[in-house]
Amino acid sequence: MSLRQEDTTLTRRPDPAGRHAAKAHAEPHEEPGRHWFIDRPKVYAADVKGRFRQLKWAVLIVLLAVYYITPWLRWERGPGIPDQAVLIDMVGRRAYFLWIEIWPQEVYYLTGLLILGAFGIFFATTLAGRIWCGYACPQTVWTDLFMWVERRIEGPRTTRIRLDKAPMTGAKLARKTAKHAAWVAISLLTGGAWVFYFNDAPTLMGELLHGQITSGVATFIALFSFTTYFFAGWAREQICIYVCPWRSFQSAMVDEDTFLVTYEDWRGEGRAPLRKSQSWDDRQAAGLGDCIDCKQCVHVCPTGTDIREGQQISCIGCGLCVDACNDVMRQIGRPIDLVRFDTQSNQIAKIDGKPERVKLVRPRTVIYSLIMLIVLCAMGIALMLRPTLDVSVLRDRAPLFVTLSDGSVQNAYTIKVLNKTHIARSYAVTFEGLRDAHLSVAGDEDAGSGGSLTLTAEADSVATFRVFVKVPAAAVKSGSTDVAVIAKDLGSGEAGKHASVFMAP
Predict the structure, then answer these.
(1) Annotated region Disordered: where (predicted)?
(2) What residues pair up with 489 in beta bridges, in sequence order?
(3) Distance between CA atoms of residues 369 and 283, nearest Å
(4) How far apart (Å, rounded) are the C-alpha atoms in residues 318 and 261?
(5) pTM
(6) Rg of the chain in Å (alpha carbons)
(7) Hey, what's the torsion of the CAs at 249, 253, 255, 259, to 10 degrees?
């Protein structure tokens, strides 16, 4: 979405198409297929001070703290159960989030979280463009950290440019080695912290210190460390521009009331360096604007975007160019916010001399908010009402049934009782829909026999039983009979139910 106007009364900017066309005629024609790709121009992002830079530092510190500290938080759940506050227990097939315990059968909660995350980003984009990309995306956070390390070791922007152009010397080698060593250390900490979310953190740390980790843990640490080092240290803005799928369709989430990083070209064009002998009245008379073409907005951009060329897919909406431009405007005595967060409707209103407006409640924001609220309420209700008991039944298919010598018919079933509580439970199991049924458990005489069985499931586990159901010849119905297998908790009275069939000749 571009804020530039075609009407010459609204902008002083020269026609960019004309410039590009003239440049195209001036350049020699290249042979088709001569270049397969365009070399990546390396971005040397300069440091900057300002409110958006401070906000980025605050968000970065909070997010890194949450990432590295969370695996070490404890949450008491009872004996024999992991006490790590957030843990994805792959061995035990559980996911623990504070007081919430998620079983594999409850994977729909993960679906709900993904929906909330997706529409949360939609909502944020509708309000403030790529604010997620500029502040909270892991690629942005770690790239920002790596760039800070690079500036501390190799120096400011101009120094880094000269260093890369200079021949290899001992001093250059030392700086490069120190930078990459710091990057590797951060990457190892990142990969190690990620693995802590899937293992007990103190236990795994002890194994790491003693060199006793398994090959699987070592492989995942190496994988996550390498991806961090490559993405944040080498690929950087290329991930945001070419790899990330979100940048491809985020423009569909914005409208004329979305706050975006905006260059006020009607005020800044035409561009020209500021001369000491030239007054601002003379500049305006010559058709020049407030932009002195210092390129500071480009130099501080982590993706190398020139925001003066309008909205571009490479802009991640971090606002660092706003800080850089405001600093320059203060130095030359001109009003700040030549580059600012603003909406297209506000920019048009300024040009027309109309009052600005902030319109947060719009169809998009309302729809996204309602969807998130519905999903959040559904997940909350499901968590509050979810049962602590679940029963599943699988009937043997080979053979479908067995006719015994007395004429009775027997079917075999595999019954699994899921006990989600933290204490052992006993359950009364019955088959509803069968008359005079006789139940027994293979290899367990204590489970009882007759029309009901008493089965026990250990705490926080799935108990599996092989159950035989025999129906006398006088009570057998030919063909298939619908039945319901009911498991009732003898302590709490909670019941689980599963539909099945009983087969007969």
Answers:
(1) 1-31
(2) 427
(3) 48
(4) 8
(5) 0.82
(6) 33
(7) -100
